């Protein structure tokens, strides 16, 4: 019996009856021969980790634009925290940890520079709208690997698309991603806001802290346990009602006190202005796009190519490109 057959046997024997068995995958759009060592979801995980889009996440904003401190989250560290929470949930519920892990690692590959500020600019300017979850799917299906895509399994792609919005993922493992994403950002954004002195510990609503916990670790444990106790042995992923209500209220508190705070967002208007100027410039001067975008221009239009190009930028690369276009170089005598 080879390694993959042993893994399939272990899944059948140990997984919850509601788990998605790897051997039941609907597969990929294009045939990929087995390597005899890794299951399909393990290969998806590796393809994502080795992609350029994944590496670029380290230089993309989570909440704080271009923070000077070394310990603020980036889009990459957010992704890793989501993955850790997702794996914990999947393992506790005896679900397919490999599927959960791959989906978590890939869920934000399409995020723009400067976080949701960049997403808002592209959504406003592009006539078809722009959502980062749809762009993440587009990255793995079309843009990665020199516009050939990563050729991921359908289950992982479904989870990536459905990690935000009203449509639930088809698998429980995909539904875990949606909860893990929210648990991660609610808690690490509070942690970063405390570090930035935007919030003090005493600012956190007492009634919510009483339910969820005083510190970062305790709140995550409460939310994770609230999902495990409510979802174990059931064909759905839910959070215990009182914990869910408290988590939602804490999220609303973040929108009021952190996401719109002048300290956290004092450079956001500049970033939005910069990306809008670049969008309009590239839309008129699309020869400046990389040659690889020619097929997208011919097939889907210039603005679609501009969206893809800007969305793929890191914060610092977009600043560099803006300076090349709009900031004159100083003249030096030879």
Layout of helices and strands, plus pairs?
Blueprint: H1 3-14, H2 40-49, H3 52-56, H4 75-92, H5 97-106, H6 115-125, H7 132-147, H8 154-161, H9 172-195, H10 206-212, H11 216-231, H12 241-259, H13 262-265, H14 268-284, H15 294-300, H16 302-311, H17 315-326
Helix pairs in contact: 2-5, 4-5, 4-9, 5-8, 5-9, 6-14, 7-8, 8-9, 9-11, 9-12, 10-12, 14-16, 14-17, 15-16
Would you give an account of this structure?
The longest helix is centred in the middle third of the chain and has 24 residues, at 172-195. Helix content is 62%, strand content 0%. The protein is mostly helical and 334 residues long. The chain has a domain at 38-263: Hypothetical protein af1432. α9 runs antiparallel to α11 (216-231). The protein has 17 helices and no strands. The chain has helices at 3-14, 40-49, 52-56, 75-92, 97-106, 115-125, 132-147, 154-161, 172-195, 206-212, 216-231, 241-259, 262-265, 268-284, 294-300, 302-311, 315-326. It is globular. The model has no long low-confidence stretch (mean pLDDT 94). The termini are far apart.
């Amino acid at each position: 019996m080879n390694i993959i057959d042993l893994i399939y046997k272990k899944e059948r024997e140990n997984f919850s009856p509601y788990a998605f068995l790897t051997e039941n995958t609907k597969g990929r759009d294009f045939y990929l021969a087995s390597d005899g060592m890794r299951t399909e979801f393990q290969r998806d995980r590796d393809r994502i980790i080795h992609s350029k889009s994944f590496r670029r996440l380290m230089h993309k904003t989570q909440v704080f634009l271009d923070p000077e401190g070394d310990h603020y989250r980036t889009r990459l560290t957010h992704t890793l925290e989501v993955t850790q929470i997702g794996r914990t949930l999947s393992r506790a519920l005896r679900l397919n940890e490999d599927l959960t892990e791959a989906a978590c690692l890939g869920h934000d590959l399409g995020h723009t520079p400067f976080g949701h500020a960049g997403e808002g600019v592209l959504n406003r300017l592009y006539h078809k709208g722009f959502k980062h979850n749809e762009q993440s799917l587009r990255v793995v299906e079309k843009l990665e690997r020199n516009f050939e895509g990563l050729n991921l399994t359908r289950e992982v792609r479904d989870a990536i698309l459905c990690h935000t919005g009203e449509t639930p993922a088809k698998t429980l493992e995909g539904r875990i991603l949606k909860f893990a994403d929210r648990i991660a950002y609610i808690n690490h954004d509070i942690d970063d806001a405390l570090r930035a002195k935007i919030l003090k510990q005493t600012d956190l609503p007492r009634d919510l802290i009483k339910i969820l916990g005083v510190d970062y670790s305790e709140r995550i444990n409460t939310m994770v346990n609230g999902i495990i106790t409510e979802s174990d042995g059931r064909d759905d992923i839910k959070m215990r009602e009182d914990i869910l209500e408290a988590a939602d209220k804490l999220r609303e508190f973040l929108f009021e006190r952190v996401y719109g705070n002048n300290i956290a967002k004092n450079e956001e208007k500049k970033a939005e202005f910069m990306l809008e100027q670049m969008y309009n410039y590239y839309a008129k001067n699309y020869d400046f796009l990389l040659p690889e975008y020619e097929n997208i221009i011919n097939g889907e239009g210039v603005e679609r190519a501009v969206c893809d190009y800007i969305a793929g930028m890191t914060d610092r690369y977009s600043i560099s490109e803006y300076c090349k276009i709009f900031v004159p170089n100083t003249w030096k005598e030879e």
